[in-house]
Design goal:
This protein is α/β, with parallel strands linked by helices. It is globular. It folds into 4 domains: about 250 residues, Orthogonal Bundle (Hypothetical protein af1432), CATH 1.10.3210.30; about 300 residues, Rossmann fold, CATH 3.40.50; about 210 residues, Rossmann fold, CATH 3.40.50; about 100 residues, no CATH class. The protein contains 32 helices and 27 strands. The strands form 6 sheets. An 8-stranded mixed beta sheet has the order 5-6-4-7-8-3-9-10, sandwiched between helices. It has a 7-stranded mixed beta sheet with strand order 13-14-12-15-16-11-19, sandwiched between helices. Helix 20 packs across helix 29. This is CRISPR-associated helicase Cas3. Keywords: Antiviral defense, ATP-binding, Helicase, Hydrolase, Metal-binding, Nuclease, Nucleotide-binding.
Length: about 1000
Amino acid sequence: MEDERSVVYVMRSMGLAVEVITRVSRLWGKSAARNGGRTHLLLGHLLDTAAVAGVMWDQYVSVAFRRRLDEVSGGRGRAWFMWVCGIHDCGKACPAFQSMDAAEAALVLGAGLSWGRLPAGRGKRWRHDVAGAVLLLPRLVEEWGDGEAAGWVWPLVAGHHGTFPSAAALDPPRGAQGQGAAWEEVQRAVVDVFTRAVGFDVLADVRPVGSLRKAEQLALSGLIVMADWIASDSSHFVGLSDAGMVSFAFARRRAETAWEQLRLRGGWRNFPLPEDPLEPLTGRLGVQPRASQRELVERAWSMPAPGLLVAEAPMGEGKTKAALAAAEILAARFGLDGVFVAMPTQATSDPMYEQVLQWVRSFDPDLESQVALLHGRRRFNAWWRTIWHGRPRPDGDGHCEHGSRPGAEDTGDDDFGAIDEDADYGMVSDEPSTNRASGLGADGPSYWFLGDKRGLLTAFAVGTVDHLLHAATRTRHVMLRFAGLTGKVVVVDEVHAADVYMRQFLIEALRWLGQAGVPVVLLSATLPPAQRQRFVDAYLSGVLGTADVHQPVPEPAGYPCVTVAYGADGQAVAETSREAVRSWRKSGPVRLAWLPDTDPAGTPVAAAVRKAVADGGVALVVVNQVARAQAIYRDLQDGGFDGVLRLLHARLCAAHRADRTAECLRLMGPQAGVDRPERMVVIATQLAEQSFDVDADVLITDLAPTDLLLQRIGRLHRHSGTRRPAAHYVPQVLVTGVEPGRDGTPRFLRVSKGIYGEWALLRAAALVMEAAGPLEGRTGVPMASGWGIPADVPGLVARAYGDAGICPASWDESGAWEQWQAKEWDREKRAEEFLLCRRREWAFPTLEGLHYAGSRAVSEEQLDAVVRDGDPSVEVIIVRRASGGYRGIDGTWLGVQGEVDDDEVTDRLLGGTVRLPPGLTDAARAELGPLPGWNGRPWLRFCLALVLEEDGTRWLGADRVSYHEVLGLVIERQAR
């Protein structure tokens, strides 16, 4: 049983002088003014944090990470983890901190500690996190007798407020750190008393016997911050101003109660290995394994150490289910506790979230409340609302498993990341989130994880790939994001979708994940070989801890294929499938033909659509510009198109886009059956390019780079057993958005060149020309040869991005390539500014100086701008002015000032959210703001309202904008 005796007893048993005991007993850690009206002593907070760490060790930290901490601490991992978490705030035992609150400072001065004139001004103030490193470092060096161990431990203390300073920063202003015997005795006593209280006799006993790798240090730092934030919650850790009340046993009971009330928990917690190697596929996911799925699962079983798996297989092959099965195996084998599935977009994250929910329930139904959906529009996901907001289930049975949760909107993405004293250093101040419904039982979701920067800390998470990329940026509290990845298996779907800018962050993330021993599964149908090689090299550079690793990946035996990379005995290993893996879908011809057209109005496209479905069928039209999609839709509608006609693009408001996407999946998805229309046309932009599980009979598409063009073709004849008109038994693609120019050189839509660059389009045109004939020849008539899909996919992608010339000499491919290469190089260099680690520092053994010039990004929107290149854009909520007030886009009355009365109205209003094109960003920021009535609503108070006048339009900058129920946001540039 833990010692119930207080820290006062501990100090007396250590033989400390009475005056030292008195002074230590006066040092405050949380002021009454910022801690619910009750002072909390410094030793109390240190012990609270250590106690929280103990509960985290027992119920949260993965087996793999516990094993590593046991290794470096000589088998004392739990106690060592509690010590390193609790010691974080020892730097508060200095004048710079103790003088910050006048009332608290008076008691400290009265105990006999004093200070002179201290530096004034926020910019000159001595931070207690750095003060802690200054206080601790010389003692660690002296008493551990090991500068190497002290060298990687002190940054953990110095960095607990989100940034890791350099050693040069450990230079306190005169008097700020404390001078004289009184301060030296008190500072030594704080460290020694805390160390004794958590179970070590003396500081020398804490000395680690080994070192964590830098990525493991980053993960540990994140866990320290997590423990600190939980222990800083005054609603669960009531302040103690009497040292006689402070004991580690009491702190432990407080921590256990807080953990239970916050409903915090880990994930699998030692889930056993399945007895049948294919059980994760056949039993849990209910699939009859295909050869490519078997290959990935078998590789997960045979990999001797955590590593990288790259699965390449055709669209619709079942890669994601195979990846989930592989994740279960890897987690069970290597002691991981959860999974993060990264998707390219918000739209693709939602269906994956529902799939992961179903999968997680097969382990334990209660685990569904530990699955987070990480993107800004999750509020509109029906299952998210059911589990996290107590709304009726999507099946309409009215069941609410966890009870009602009034005021649920207050548990959203508010900035809970900063804690009390951070306000004194220029950060937004807000206490960590508390559980708004603590009486609902231990099986409900933990709202604590909804706080800013915490989403990845949930056991299971699905979200946009941005969250993975954020964990590779040199931003404040990056350690929290990275800690959320460590201890999980990371799955990245559609990995080819990352452009060259985003790819720099993905490569950086792979380095850190490799060094942390995190298994990663990358999925793609159209991955260029050079990208596969870079991903492998990045992961292995992390495993080996060096910046430059090149381990040639053998040429795959066929397609589908699986590449495996891991470290063994200090050596890098990269392997691919040794035998050809049979694709589930038999390869067949896809006939291609040209449809020359570079007019944004797309009149020839509309005519081709009418012809293609004249005798029935389902056509998918994918174009590269919203205005072009709208124009084609108008043409078909005005011409009296007889059939189901739908428009899908990114300028639809959130509610309309979600409804239309769901309808397309219902009518064209794998379960469509009798619901599939006799005649249907969907006109879409790049939203339909990936993770859009629909089946079209014919595809008409603007030209795009080869890999993206193949992704669009992946929506064609996708599902077996789909009934089709006889004219569509053979899949056909009409390629438009291009027409012959001077000397036969293709001319492209201007918007296509702006998005993709001319070189990639020229290469794609050359490959299409091989299958469809010359652009100047007969158009609209497919050649008999075409492409063999999926067999030709890897070869086409490899040629498109290879070094060999494939374009006719008259096209001047070299000039286009030079322009493309220069632009790509420039984008790579811009990304380097925000990468977590400079190249020359990759092999450094500690976190010292990691934030040498950290990004100032603090909000999710700013972080998105860091990891995604291009012009900035903003979201707005469309509101219509009405007589005497405002209405939402669906007609909901809002009140004279736009007042919103309840959650349901908030939901309907947020359904009118739409992202403006970048060209309107400056005007929106200058002219728009929240409605006055939104000030008290957490979800609305920072939102921009795009107020349309009663005629349905308004000027925004030089553009006239309106919103049409079908067309979406319509933008017309006119002279005022």
